[in-house]
Automatic annotation (TrEMBL):
<comment type="similarity">
    <text>Belongs to the short-chain dehydrogenases/reductases (SDR) family.</text>
</comment>
<dbReference type="InterPro" id="IPR002347">
    <property type="entry name" value="SDR_fam"/>
</dbReference>
<dbReference type="Pfam" id="PF00106">
    <property type="entry name" value="adh_short"/>
</dbReference>
<dbReference type="InterPro" id="IPR036291">
    <property type="entry name" value="NAD(P)-bd_dom_sf"/>
</dbReference>
<protein>
    <submittedName>
        <fullName>DHR13 reductase</fullName>
    </submittedName>
</protein>
<dbReference type="GO" id="GO:0016491">
    <property type="term" value="F:oxidoreductase activity"/>
</dbReference>
<keyword id="KW-0560">Oxidoreductase</keyword>
Length: 241
């Protein structure tokens, strides 16, 4: 109604529920014959556990997007050329993936923040491994750091921390439109296909931190994520080294 564009359609999707992700994908595939662009943009930084038994931040920020992308991947391939944008964060630099405890809250007093950082590292690695598996398909993908954006991302922050975050947000953070620029750049800019799997910030290429460039970790994360979301293995195997 706000856009006055009859082509805009709302479809409910709760990334904190793998059941909801599957229902959304099934409904979308029934209703929409084409898919040229998928932007995995949702993100939370909050404690708690989902109905699937995973930490809330890690499921919403990574596992839910991972399952959604996998369920829609054939439609993206059939609609090629197409693109996947995964909204990550510079917070990936503090990520530490524990593959034997993936999806469980990290230990320590800053568990919620660490879980968020871990999920953002997973985002960058997801894009990297997805690109490897989709070589030659005309489906490309990009991880994006939108900058520090004044949204409600930290609305679940502890009460003692909010008086510090709110002034910082208003003074230094970007508004939502500015925060969308790099995602839109990767979604629409011509001639970036050769950078599939790479990390972008401020509408340009940027090297992520070393763990986010670890191909073995990316592959291990992929395989662990498949198990956690109940996929029996990807039909698109990674190219041989």
């Amino acid at each position: 109604q706000e856009t006055r564009n009859a082509e805009v359609r709302f479809m409910p999707l709760d990334l904190a529920s793998l059941r909801s992700v599957r229902a959304f994908a099934s409904a979308f595939l029934r209703q929409e014959p084409h898919l040229h662009l998928l932007i995995n943009n949702a993100g939370v930084s909050a404690g708690g556990t989902t109905e699937d038994g995973f930490s809330l931040s890690f499921q919403v920020n990574h596992l839910g997007h991972f399952l959604l992308t996998q369920l829609l991947l054939q439609r993206l391939r059939d609609s090629a050329p197409s693109r996947v944008i995964i909204v990550a964060s510079s917070a990936h630099c503090a990520g530490r993936l524990r593959l034997d405890a993936l999806g469980r809250p990290p230990p320590g007093p800053f568990s919620t923040f660490q879980d968020y950082c871990d999920s953002k590292l997973a985002n960058v690695l997801h894009a990297r491994e997805l690109a490897r598996r989709l070589q030659g398909t005309q489906v490309t993908c990009y991880a994006v750091h939108p900058g520090f954006v004044n949204t409600e991302l930290f609305r679940h922050a502890p009460l003692w921390l909010k008086p510090l975050l709110v002034p910082l947000a208003w003074l230094f953070f970007r508004d939502a439109a500015e925060g969308a620029r790099t995602s839109l750049h990767c979604a629409t800019h011509e001639d970036i296909e050769r950078f599939s799997g790479r990390y972008f910030a401020d509408c340009g290429l940027q090297e992520p931190w070393p763990p986010a460039r670890d191909d073995r970790l990316a592959r291990a994360l992929w395989e662990a994520s498949e198990r956690l979301v109940g996929l029996g293995g990807s039909p698109w195997a990674a190219p041989s080294d």
